[in-house]
Design a protein that fits this description.
The complex is a heterodimer of chains A (about 375) and B (about 100). With about 375 residues, chain A is an alpha+beta fold. Chain A is built from eleven helices and eleven strands. Chain B is globular, with a radius of gyration of 13 Å. Classes of the chains: A alpha+beta (about 375), B mainly alpha (about 100).
């Protein structure tokens, strides 16, 4: 398309420049019933999976219908959401912190009509556009990252893995069959953008090979001290190499000290390490952020490696399904996955799920690793 | 990667317009860049920032942290933005010929 100016003048870039205005005030976008009862809610109920009602001191009710989204979406789909909001909700809608979309109405009849409309909308391929669910003790949306869609450091894909996991666990999104909510998160590398370190089940992309070193370009593209300082195990050191009689400043990597985190590639474009066969997924379980009953927990690695199998990642979905099923059958009410594993003991967790315990799972990172070993005779055979 | 020609000199640059080789830097590079960076005329203060960035890079192999840049030049961050509207990384480092900033930027 030919260039169409927005009115910005490249010759005078600072002229008429508006900056530091921040986001719009959220009050501008509140449905009237929310605005009128702000801070005056008495109680709420979950009427059915995906549908909540909040009752205010004034007696006002607001019905919320929560729908799953793919997070990565086109303007066309956003427009369709706006059409739904215009039709049923006076043009108001909101997104949740897990990237679900919520439509709010002020009466039960409107809610029923809205829900029916939402469930009737499908993509040409057959997927629901707005599946209703994600409330209570189920499995809500998956917090995830960029993957192969946009990032340059991933070890796996995000949108793809999320779609196959949610397909597999769809009836848990539209139901309340779990002992407690199960939060799943996906991060495509160890940077763990998002919530992997504190989710009930976490999918994390990992590498298994050290970086390649682009000696000829490294000094030009990288600030060598940064690459050295980026390494958590001290495997990177500055060095010099001679190629075709020319001296190049570069780095050397002690491969036996490298654990393939990829931090040095983040800092230095000349140290790429992604690899088709080497890259894959580590599964972590047992994290949570809430303070309910037990303190917040980090998730722990239970499967060291699952290969990348695009486009459907069958091993990954099977492993997650297995963990979810065993947890569902065995845990007490209100028990999060981490609470359950800690109560029965991790050796029982591995026994019940049938997951193989490998040496990779034993912490060996610096002094704190010691505290993850068992200094007790208390264990089950 | 692209090669740009300017006033008889040629520069190897990447898609963001950063020099691929610090050694290729010369005063013409600054003249070439300034327009894209929204700078009309270079004054002593611009030069002071560029000189310091280059000295620091030659000596330490990294770009200085913003607080070091501020402290040594005596320019507050706000003033650095007035000098280089794209900021110390995209603006000043590019004009000084330093490598492109990396990390989660």
């Amino acid at each position: 398309m030919a260039f169409v100016s927005s009115g910005y003048n490249p010759d005078k870039p600072m002229e008429n420049r508006i900056s530091d205005i921040g986001p719009r005030d959220f009050n501008e976008f509140m449905p009237p019933v929310i605005k009128n009862n702000f801070g005056k809610w008495l109680y709420h109920e979950i009427l059915e999976p995906g549908v909540l009602v909040h009752v205010a001191e004034s007696g006002d009710e607001v019905y919320t219908v929560r729908c799953g989204t793919a997070r990565l979406m086109s303007i066309t789909l956003i427009r369709e959401m706006c059409d739904i909001a215009d039709k049923h909700c006076e043009g108001f809608l909101r997104f949740t912190t897990r990237n679900n979309v919520e439509f709010m109405v002020d009466s039960k009849d409107k809610m029923v009509a809205l829900k029916e409309d939402l469930m009737s909308r499908k993509f040409d391929g057959g997927s629901y556009k707005f599946p209703v669910g994600g409330t209570g003790a189920g499995i809500s949306n998956i917090v995830h990252t960029q993957g192969w869609v946009h990032c340059h450091t991933p070890a796996t894909d995000a949108s793809g893995t999320v779609k196959v996991i949610m397909d597999d666990l769809f009836e848990e999104f539209t139901g309340h069959n779990m002992p407690a909510p199960v939060r799943i998160a996906v991060a495509c590398c160890l940077n763990m953008c998002g919530a992997c370190h504190c989710s009930d089940i976490a999918v994390v992309g990992i590498h298994r090979k050290p970086p390649l070193i682009d000696h000829e370009y490294l000094d030009n593209l990288c600030e060598i001290p940064l690459a050295v300082a980026s390494c958590p195990t001290g495997a990177v050191r500055p060095s010099k190499v001679e190629i075709d009689g020319k001296q190049f400043k570069t780095v050397a990597i002690k491969e036996e000290r490298c654990m393939f985190c990829g931090n040095c590639y983040t800092m230095c474009p000349s140290l790429p390490l992604s690899d088709k066969e080497g890259d894959g997924i580590a599964l972590m379980v047992g994290g949570k952020v809430s303070n309910r009953i037990s303190m917040p927990k980090f998730s722990k690695v239970v499967v060291a490696f699952i290969p990348n199998e695009p486009p459907r990642w069958p091993t990954l979905t099977k492993t997650i399904r297995n963990i979810v099923e065993v947890y569902k059958a065995d845990a007490n009410k209100y028990e999060r996955l981490g609470d359950w594993a800690e109560r029965i003991g991790w050796e029982r967790f591995f026994e019940k799920t049938g997951i193989e315990f490998t040496p990779h799972l034993i912490d060996d990172f610096r002094d704190p690793a010691y505290y993850t070993w068992r200094q007790s005779t208390q264990f089950k055979f | 990667m692209a090669i740009v020609e300017f006033q008889g000199k040629s520069f190897d640059v990447d898609e963001d317009g950063f020099l691929l080789k610090f050694e290729e830097w010369c005063p013409e590079w600054v003249d070439f860049c300034k327009e894209g960076e929204g700078i009309k005329e270079l004054n002593e203060e611009h030069q002071k920032v560029i000189d310091f960035l280059q000295d620091y890079y030659k000596k330490n192999g990294i770009a200085p942290m913003v607080r070091i840049l501020s402290k040594v030049t005596g320019f507050k961050l706000k003033h650095i933005y007035e000098l280089f509207p794209s900021g110390p990384g995209k603006g000043a480092c590019k004009m000084a010929g330093l490598p492109k900033p990396t990390g989660c930027v």
